[in-house]
Amino acid sequence: MDLLRDPDTDLVDACRHPESEQFESAFEALYLKYRDRVYSIAYRITGSAVDAMDVVQESFGLVFRKLDGFRADALFSTWLFRIVVNCSIDLRRRERARLLPGAELDASAEEATDPAIGPAGSAEVHELGAEVHRAIQMLSPKLRVILALRYLEEMSYDDLACTLGLSLGTVKSRLARAHLALERVLRSTFPHLQARDGTSEGEGALA
Asked: What is the pTM of this model?
């Protein structure tokens, strides 16, 4: 079990006791350790730097309020990223409801398909152009989330399943759906990206 020990255990334990002298330094250490990754995930989901900063503040506020409920049956980072995903999706939905009352998510991005998923390099999202980033923002939140976590955070399928609370099969299927949905958007909205190398698959468009 020692080999599987959460590296954040000592900091988390210190944060469970706000009255202790170690609390402030421990919470600050967790904040500084994960702030940039939390921001990156939030930005990829919300598509807005301002919204991403709001998610950072909201997420760490929830960590402070809900830490007593964290039972350490998963890594602290996994629990934190789940909070970030939920906060980002909630904020995105609130914004959408405010701007477009009654609007539904694009059904085409939610069609269920389960093709084989090919390999993708970990540097793909880092190299995305502005058009591809905008295309990702056109996807539904759940598809945008899985692309961000898979390629930006370089999460394995197992980590995705744990973070999102999904089965491994659902993770693979949803990631495949995200690739296909992204390919549709690129083909219809940014055809020049596909034409540059003859690519016709969603994963190829990420390369």
From this structure: 0.70
Distance CA 110, CA 50 (A): 27
* Cβ–Cβ < 8 Å for 192, 199: no
Chain segment 123-147, per-residue pLDDT in tens: 444 444 566 777 788 888 888 889 8
Q: What is the pLDDT of residue 129?
A: 58
CATH topology of domain 1-102: Rna Polymerase Sigma Factor; Chain: A (1.10.1740)
Q: How far apart are CA 60 and CA 15, in angstroms?
A: 12
Is 75 strand, coil or helix?
Answer: coil
Token pair for 160: 């995705």
Q: Which CATH architecture has domain 115-207?
A: Orthogonal Bundle (1.10)
Q: Which residue has the tokens 């890594």?
A: 75
Q: List, in sequence order, the alpha helices (H) in 48-127.
A: 49-66, 76-99
**How far apart, in Å, are the Cα atoms of 186 and each of 35, 182, 190, 195?**
31, 6, 5, 10
Tell me the residue length of the chain: 207
The first and second tokens of residue 204, run together, are 């190829």
Which tokens sit at 33? Answer: 């350790």
Three-state SS for 4-27 is: HCCCCHHHHHHHCCCCCCCHHHHH
